[in-house]
Specification:
By secondary structure, this protein is α/β, with parallel strands linked by helices. It is built from 12 helices and 11 strands. The chain has 2 domains: 11-135 and 303-328, Rossmann fold, CATH 3.40.50; 136-298, 3-Layer(aba) Sandwich (Rossmann fold). Bound molecules: phosphoric acid mono(formamide)ester (CP). Residues 55-59, 129, 138, 273-275 line the site of phosphoric acid mono(formamide)ester.
């Protein structure tokens, strides 16, 4: 597979053929991710998990995915805890840390920083989010989830009518997802945001050039009724010049049970890259949706482990050796009734 020995810095690096192969490998990871089986295929390998910006699910699911394949994880979190705070360059940091790791996952607040780091790395580097630029592994797990959710309704990707909702200007997950959707043709995509937070033109162009039917709007009513998948995003307050400016959009596109029942198709799928901002004045995705079968946000986070396991396996070239290092689980799995 073409991922072997390669960096994953951008979704521009992946083709449709590669995605289809990757998703088959991701599906083969399910017995290990759900603790039906154990594989030790990466025993002895070390992941350098370097997160210089806050993260819960990307950081932990990278680590969890590597552990589930039998590898060890060495973690660095926060710029102030690293020698970057003393003026060390990304190049030097990469030269050093790639001597300690077999593969590195990295998040950094500046666009282009992970690519700069990769330039100095002697091992493959995976982009875990570089500022407002890209979040390729999130886009892959989002696309995997869209496939899974549509399949559960006996639909395929060709049936997708997707509404991207919220802060489309700063949301790197939707920037990467648009680029992946540009690999398909003839989909329906609605881009709904406050005008000041609209999707950058370069991503809209990718969608229109792929022949998708793209609608742009700024009200929920314009985006919800025709969607079979709704992808809500958080207002990315850390990307605004001031908190006051970000506060203008808090609660702007609130999606709750009443709005969902009134405007959405029955069982419309709700996705969100998370974290959702659950503070009272934000509530972009209310807790009263938690029992809706269409709410796919935690199936989405579970899928993150499958897709990241598949990426590690393919980049390190062990995707065909999983069974060779397999054994049964010897502990109790889940909660006893
Ligand atoms: N979706 C996502 O990137 O979440 P974290 O910021 O918690 O990693």
């Amino acid at each position: 597979m073409k991922l072997k020995g390669q960096h994953l810095l951008s979704v521009k690096d992946v083709s449709l053929e590669l995605i289809n192969d990757l998703f088959k490998v991701a599906e083969s990871m399910r017995p290990y991710a759900t603790r039906q089986k154990v594989t030790r295929v990466l025993e002895g390998a070390v992941l350098g998990n370097m997160f210089f910006e806050p993260s819960t699910r990307t950081r932990v699911s990278f680590g969890c995915a590597f552990n589930l394949l039998g590898g060890e994880v060495r973690e660095t979190t926060g710029l102030s805890n690293s020698a970057l705070a003393k003026g060390e360059s990304l190049y030097d940091t990469a030269q050093v840390l790639s001597g300690y790791s077999d593969i590195i996952a990295m998040r950094h607040p500046e666009a282009g920083s992970v690519a700069e780091f990769a330039h100095g790395s002697r091992v493959p580097v995976i982009n875990g989010g570089d500022g407002p630029n890209e979040h390729p592994t999130q886009a892959l797990l989002d696309l995997f989830t869209i496939h899974q959710e549509l399949a559960s309704q006996d639909r395929g990707i060709q049936d997708l009518s997707l509404t991207l909702l919220g802060d489309l200007k700063h949301g790197r997950t939707v920037h990467s997802l648009c680029q992946l959707l540009g690999l398909y043709q003839g989909l329906k995509i609605q881009l709904i945001s406050p005008e000041a937070l609209a999707m950058p033109t370069k991503y809209v162009d990718i969608l229109t050039n792929a022949g998708h039917q793209v609608e742009i709007g700024n009200t929920l009513e314009q985006g919800l009724p025709q969607a079979n998948v709704i992808y809500q995003t958080r207002i990315q307050e850390e990307r605004f010049s001031s908190q006051e400016e970000a506060n203008r959009y808090r609660g702007y596109f609130r999606l709750n049970k009443q709005i969902y029942s009134q405007h959405c198709q029955p069982n419309a799928v709700i996705m969100h890259p998370l974290p959702r901002d659950s503070r009272n004045d934000a509530n972009e995705l209310d807790n009263d949706l938690n029992t809706e079968p269409g709410l796919a946000i935690f199936r989405q986070t579970d899928n993150g482990v499958l897709v990241r396991m598949a990426l590690f396996a393919c980049i390190l070239g062990v995707e065909n050796q999983l069974h060779q290092y397999e054994r049964e689980v010897n502990w109790f799995v889940g909660l006893d009734d």
